[in-house]
Specification:
The structure is a single chain. By secondary structure, the chain is an alpha+beta fold. It is built from four helices and eight strands, in the order H-H-E-E-H-E-E-E-H-E-E-E. It has helices spanning 3-19, 22-26, 47-59, 92-97; strands spanning 29-36, 44-45, 63-66, 70-71, 77-87, 111-122, 128-134, 140-143. Strands 1, 2, 3, 4, 5, 6, 7 and 8 form an eight-stranded mixed beta sheet that branches. The longest helix is centred in the first third of the chain and has 17 residues, at 3-19.
Length: 144
Amino acid sequence: MNEFARKKRALEHSRRVNAGDLDALIELYAPDAVLEDPVGLPPLTGHDALRAHYEPLLAARLREEAAEPVAGQDATHTLIQIASVMDYLPMGPLYAERGWLKAPETPGTARIHRTAMLVIRMDTSGLIRHLKSYWGTSDLTVLG
């Protein structure tokens, strides 16, 4: 894939997240794709694991605002900064339990804001082979 196509595919990932369309989101990934969140998760491999990961996030009304992607000159990688907001429930208590953020007084109405950098490796057909999300506790904020 050329740089323009990879950038477009990275933005499509955020569009599908924002649409809340789990099936369409999973279609962007190769069947044996790996998702890594070095801060919070062990590597997840395959469509079933990805579905289990994204389902509660989409249920929490995850919304992403993507910056302009940057394409690597290696013909496979794209980097994109994401600012996201989602409901505190159901994932927030896990974040609070791990000490990543302070639990809000009203968890039912609170939201979480997170900034992350995604490093996405795609194959020649445009499927995501590997997605690594980088963020730190200073990139999490409870809203409300």
